[in-house]
Amino acid sequence: MVRTPLIPRPVPGLPRGALPSGWVRSAAGTAGVTLLGLGVFAALAAVGLAPHPSFQLLVIAAGALLFPLRGRFPGPVLLALAVLTGLASGAGPLAAVAAYGLARRTVRVRRRARLPAAAAVLLVATATAAAPVVGPGLGPYGLALGLALAPTAVIVPCLVGTAQGQQRRLVRALRERGDAAERARLAADSEARTHERSRIAAEMHDLLGHRLSLISLHAGGLELALDRAAPELREEAVLVRRTTRDAMSELRQVLGVLGPLGRDAGPGVLTNATGTRADIEALVAESRDGGVAVRLDWTGPDLDGRPAPVRRAAHRVVREALTNVHRYAPSAHVTVGVAHAGAAVRITVRNGAPPGPPVPAGSLGTGRGLTGLRERVELLGGSFDAAPLPSGGFLVDAALPAEPGDAVVPHTAGPRGAGAAPGAEGGGAEGGAANALTLALGLGALCVLMALATAFVYGSAPRPDSGPRPLPRVGMTYDEVTGLGVVDNKAVRAAATGHEPPRPAGTAGCAYPFNGATESRPGGLLVARYCFDAGQRLIAIDRFTVPSVRDASPWETP
Asked: How do strand 344-351 and strand 383-388 relate by DSSP bridges?
C-alpha cells in the first residue's frame, strides 16, 4: 500500500509555500533607511553645513545598529534614536521609521502618546545641550534645530502610523465580523437543511415504514401457509420476506442520513465507541466476514479523546466506503488507513481493481452517499476527495481537523468579495504595493524637510569669524590697534592741530585715523585720537570736535 502523507498545517502568518525570510527583509529595510540618513548627511555636507563629519557618521552607524532591534524593543530603540537624531540629523530617517512602526503596532492610546512625546522631548533636549559642542554653536539655535527635527523625525511619522494602525485594525475587525456573519449564515443554512431532512425522514417513516412492516408480516404468514399447502412456493414467500427486511434496513440507513447530523438513526446509533479504533476494527471485521479482503492500517493514538462529530465522521467515511466496496467491487482487496497525528485525522479507503469485468455504468449508484460524506467533512472544516485510480481501483480520502473548533469556514469567491485573502487588508497585492510606494515617498519628503530645516538653522547661526570687528581698547599695542584698521591720517592730524585738548601724561605719540572723523554738525568735525606711551601701548582714546571749513560748490560764486 502506498501511504498518503498527512496534510501539513500551514505556519500561522506565513503564506503557503513561503520561506521565513524576515531577516532578509529586515536587513534590506535597515540598509535602505540608513542610505536615506547618509543622503541627508551628504546633502548638508555638500553645502558646508555638516560640522564634525566623522562624529555624525559615527552617530548614523550607531543608529543603523539599533534600528533592527525596533521590533523586539520598540520603545527603548525609539528613545535612543531620538537622542541620536538630536546629535546628528542623518539619524532622523531611522527615528522616523521606528516611530511609524511603534505607533502602527501600539493599541493602547496612552502608550501610543507617551512614547512619541518622550522621544520628541529627548530630541529637543539633546539638540539644545549638544549645540555648543557638535551643533550650531549656541543654545537657542540648538533649540530651534530640535524643534525643527522633532515634527519630521517623530511627530508626523507617529501620526501617520497611528492612522495606518487604526485603519488596519478596523479592516481586520470588519473582516472578522464578516467571517462571523458568514459562519452564522452557514450554520443557519445547515440547521435549515437538518430540519428539512428530519421532516423528510419523518414522512418516509410514516409512509413507508408501516407499509413495509405489513408486507413483512403478511409474507411471514404466507410462508407458514405455503409450508403446508404448497411447499414448492415457500421459497418465493421467503424471498419476499427477506427482501422486505432488507428494504426496512435500507430505509433505516436512509433515515439516518436524512436525520439530524447531531444524532444517527437506525441500528448504528451513536455511542461512546463510535469512531474509535475498536469501532473501525468492528466495521472492518464485518466486511471481512462478508467476503471482502480488508486490511486496517492505524497510525497514531486512538480517537476516543476527540469530539463526537469527528468520531462520527470517521465512522461514516469508513462505513460508506466499505458499503460501496461491497456493492461494486466485492472481490477486490481493500486497505483502510487511519492516521491520527497532532491536530489532523486522515482517513483513506483504497481498493484495487476487481478481477472480474468492470461494473457497467448503468449499475453504478447515484453518488449521493459520497456527496453526503463530502458535506459532513467540509462542515467540520476538513477536505474530502473520492476518485477512481489509474490502476482501476477507487480511493476515498478524507482529512478532518482533530478539533472542529479550530476550523475556519472556507471563503468562496462571489459578488460580495468573501473570498479575499486573509492578508489582503490593503486591497490585495496592488493595494499593498501602492501603500508601500506612498510610505516611501512620504519618507523621502520627510528626509528633504529634515535637510532643509537643518540647513536653515545652521545657516542662520553665527559663525566664529562672522560679526563686527572688535574695537581697540586701552592696553593694546600699536600693532594690534593698526591691525584693527586704526591708521594715522595726515589730513585729520592737520585738522586737529591747534584744536585738540591736551594730551595725557606720558604720551609719546598719537594717531588720528580717518575712519574716526565724522561730521557731527555743520561746521564741526568729530575726531578720534589714539595716544600711545613710549612702550607703544595705547593709554587713551579721546574724541573731540574741531571746526571745519565748508567749501563752496563749483557752480556757486563766492
From this structure: unpaired
Evaluate whether 458 touches 44 at the Cβ level (below 8 Å): yes
Q: How confident is the model at residue 22 (pLDDT cuts 50, 70, 90)?
A: low
The answer to whether 382 and 347 have CB atoms below 8 angstroms apart is no
3-state secondary structure of 514: helix
Helix (H, G, I), strand (E, B) or coil at 344: strand
**Range from 340-354, 422-436, 455-469 carrying the lowest mean pLDDT:** 422-436
48's grid cell: 558646508
Rounded CA-CA distance 423/431 in Å is: 11
* Backbone dihedral angles phi then psi of residue 403, each to the nearest 5 degrees: -125, 105
Please state the φ and ψ torsions of residue 398, each to the nearest 5 degrees: -130, 130
Neighbouring-strand partners of residue 521: 524
Confidence of residue 365 (pLDDT cuts 50, 70, 90): low
Burial 218-254 (b: 16+ CB within 10 A, else e): ebeebbeebeeeeeeebeebbebbeebeeeeeebebb
What's the pLDDT tens digit per position in 174-224? 998 988 888 888 888 877 877 777 777 767 766 677 677 778 777 777 878
Q: Which residues are within 8 A (CB) of 400 and not within 5 positions of it... i.e. 6 or more apart?
A: 310, 313, 314, 344, 345, 346, 347, 377, 380, 382
HEC profile of 425-472: CCCHHHHHHHHHHHHHHHHHHHHHHHHHHHHHHHHHCCCCCCCCCCCC
- H or E element that contains 339: strand 333-341
Question: What is the C-alpha end-to-end distance of the chain, expressed in Å?
Answer: 137
Region of 536 (left: φ > 0; alpha: ψ -120 to 50; beta: rest) is left
DSSP assignments along 237-296, one per residue: HHHHHHHHHHHHHHHHHHHHHHS-TTS--STT---TTTTSHHHHHHHHHHHHHTT-EEEE
> How far apart are alpha carbons 372 and 193 in whole angstroms?
12
Residue 195's Cβ-count burial label (10 Å; 0-12, 13-18, 19+) is exposed
Determine the number of helices (DSSP H) and then strands (DSSP E) in the chain.
15, 9
Please report which residue ranges of 47-155 form alpha helices under DSSP H.
53-66, 74-87, 92-105, 109-134, 139-150
Distance CA 369, CA 350 (A): 17
- Beta bridge partners, 518, equal 526
201 Cβ contact list (under 8 Å, min separation 6): 254, 255, 258, 259, 265
Kind of pairing between the strands at 524-532 and 509-511: antiparallel
DSSP state, 537?
B
Closest CA to 312 of 254, 273, 344: 273
